[in-house]
Specification:
mainly alpha, Hypothetical protein af1432, elongated
């Protein structure tokens, strides 16, 4: 365990929560705003510190199971879709992460209306899931184009109208106690909400070490990759390739382990890309490719806000930059592309052209080597790192495929049936 490598837990989670909602102005900061509401209600209800923290974590990632941008927008607009699917998948994702697992039931039931419960509201997970249900419900009803204090009366009326049906009366009562405060609504709608939660929120003093950082990174690797069956093992492959190249290059073991985290996060920004583009079977149009280009920008902008991960942000986000400065999105040249980023760029291209995609089959070794060498000749990739890969091709390729197979088996066994359940947008459930 790398005891010297740690980050602030609140900073880490807030930035990753922000990543889930970056893609559209309709949903930006939805997770964070919902978490703020839930936190304020839980404090007013005098819940124990441990429950407040657990509910806060659940709220920050309550829609993590809505893997596509399209589904997130439909949820936010109260469109009739199968709300159960993203709750079940969210629970499965939380369960895969030791640090977040205690909050999985709150995520699982955050859309379950009170009238369908057969248990007492005094059951902690039920009470807390009802808080999240209310917080999510009220946040989705806020009009982001209107001044918040002009909406308060209407928002309160909406909550009162569902009291005893969707939301238990006890939870509504606590909400009404805080809803009379202007500062509650002004903080909720403030562009400084991230800073408010970072410096005053329930996780402001918590630190997490490498093992827990890695565990959460693994969860996000799954969230990113499981958006599509065609990329269900991509980040796993990139991370394993980067780890092996890092060791061959002579990086320290600490750097190697950090490189694995960077590999898991390198496509974090793809959470902002519509599946209609990611899964397009044909060539992308100029406009579609322009949308794709934002994914590395978002990866960097999110990771770079986490204190202590600035180097990982560059390793992860510069994988489409080129040594001659013609890459994207920053157009940095060789002098600003460090060793970790160079390794990640080679790992990403190798993995991408080795695996099957909607528009082509994975390439054979000869073709892969030809492409990599041509990228070196065009001053896009680092020659030394490409040579390391070619010289160790069989060993690297074998390990990458083995780890990708393991990841795909997890996808098929634990997540595939859940994601297929929601295909076709089956109507059902109550938003």
């Amino acid at each position: 365990m790398l005891k010297e490598f740690s980050v602030n837990f609140g900073n880490f989670l807030l930035s990753l929560s922000d990543a889930i909602d970056l893609a559209s102005s309709q949903i930006v900061s939805h997770q964070m705003r919902t978490a703020f509401i839930a936190w304020q209600i839980s404090k007013s209800a005098s819940l124990p510190k441990e429950r407040i923290e657990k509910l806060f974590i659940a709220s920050l990632f309550h829609d993590i199971g809505a893997l596509s941008l399209e589904e997130k927008i439909k949820l936010h607009k109260f469109e009739k879709i199968d709300v159960e699917t993203h709750c079940i998948l969210g629970e499965a994702l939380f369960e895969s992460c030791r640090l977040l697992a205690p909050a999985k039931k709150i995520v699982r039931y955050h859309h379950k209306p009170w009238h369908l419960w057969d248990y007492s509201i005094d059951t902690p997970d039920i009470f807390d899931s009802q808080i999240l249900c209310l917080a999510d419900y009220i946040e989705r009803h806020i009009d982001r184009n209107r001044y918040i204090l002009h909406q308060v009366n209407g928002l309160i009326e909406k909550i009162i109208s569902v009291s005893g049906d969707i939301i238990h009366g006890d939870v509504v009562k606590v909400f009404l106690e805080i809803s009379s405060r202007e500062d509650f609504w002004l903080d909720l709608s403030s562009p400084r909400l991230y800073s408010i939660l970072l410096h005053s929120g329930p996780l402001r003093r918590a630190e997490i070490d490498y093992d827990n950082i890695f565990s959460i990174a693994s969860l996000f690797r799954n969230t990113i990759d499981f958006k599509s069956r065609f990329t269900a093992t991509h980040s796993t492959g990139v991370a394993e390739c980067a780890v092996m190249l890092s060791r061959l290059f002579g990086l320290t073991e600490t750097e190697v382990k950090q490189m694995k985290i960077a590999g898991y996060f390198h496509d974090l920004g793809k959470l902002a890309i519509p599946n209609s583009i990611l899964e397009k079977p044909g060539k992308l149009t100029k406009d579609e490719f322009a949308v794709i280009k934002q994914h590395t920008y978002f990866t960097y902008s999110v990771l770079n806000t986490i204190g202590g991960l600035d180097h990982i942000a560059e390793w992860a986000a510069f994988h489409h930059e080129k040594l001659d400065g013609t890459g994207y999105p920053f157009h940095v040249g060789a002098e600003k592309i460090n060793t970790g980023a160079r390794i990640m760029a080679v790992s990403d291209i190798f993995t991408a052209i080795s695996e099957d995609r909607p528009y082509r089959k994975g390439m054979e070794r000869k073709k892969i080597e030809t492409i990599l060498v041509s990228q070196v000749e065009n001053n896009a990739l680092d020659k030394k790192i490409v040579n390391l890969l070619i010289e160790n091709f069989e060993g690297i390729s074998s390990v990458v495929k083995e780890k990708q197979l393991e990841s795909f088996e997890v996808f098929e066994m634990k997540f595939s049936n859940i994601t297929r359940r929601g295909e076709g947008g089956r109507e059902g459930g109550r938003p």
